[in-house]
Give the backbone structure.
Amino acid sequence: MRLRLWGAALVSACAVGLSVVSAGGAVAAPSDVDAMYRDSTVINGAPTFGAISGIDRTDNGSYALVSTDVGRQGPARVYTANLAFRSDIGFLGNGTLNGGGPILGPFQIPPLPGQAQFEGIRRVGPDYVVASGGANQFVRQIGRFGNHIRDLGLPKAYRTTAKTGLNGQRGLTGVAVGPGGRVSAITAGGLKQDPRTSARLITWAGKGTSEHVYRTDGDKVAADVLSVNNTDFLVLERGKGRITRIYWTTTRGAQSVSGAAKLSGRERAMPKKLIFSTAPLSGLTTGNMSGLGWGNWLPDRPWQKYRARILYVVTNNAFAGPTRVHALEVHLPKG
């Protein structure tokens, strides 16, 4: 099924284009960053296909997807798929699967049921990096065939105890890869010892890590993070109600909380700006929006002050319906 809500898309773009949200500091977001809805499609699946929580571009029209399945339909796994999109038309039919396989753990053994709940995936060089939430949380680099390469070390504050550490469904929820293969991950909300809305963005650079606070809306959690560059990101927020939002955010101007054992909630968080909301799109069957992935750049028009790029939002159907992919058009200032 394909959906086009052009009128609502224009309303959405206008509604969010002027909305700047302060998150504990001065907002440094470019005022002309916004996004508009373009089109939707579904991905035709195999019997085990579903519960997709992450998507990332691997080539022109080619994407990797990761399932949150904890063992109900088989081992934790990655899929590859094709999505055909034209800037003047939209999606050219449904997406199609063309591959996939299990994600292996240490010693190249598939995780047992319940040992992994993968929430995000990004390509890094020829490989992937994935994040697991739920009962067993980690950030892992895997090869293109799912083989285990290494787990990235997490700071002491993330280690789970009765009162501290990664907090179940408010734990690791997405990964991002910036220029030069710089990996970041975000938590859905605060660690057990942190305020609920004080999500942490952790970045691995060199031999150490850096951390900043991303403050979610009071009724939402962070569902995924996507790099714009090494300081700027897009964050997908979802939660109570049908409204899902996408924010532009940056570490510039935010307070470093690297190595902090506990957050107070008074830290200077990453500034954020709303660039898209599903609120004006009342006729859109959104599904459970779960993952963000870049598409292709649209043709450059010299008279425009922005470059446009397609952004895909994938839904987690929990094996109860089709896996939907929504295409947005993001406007990024030139220069």
Summary: The longest strand covers residues 34-44. Residues 304 and 334 are 9 Å apart (CA to CA). The first helix runs from residue 6 to 17. The radius of gyration is 19 Å.
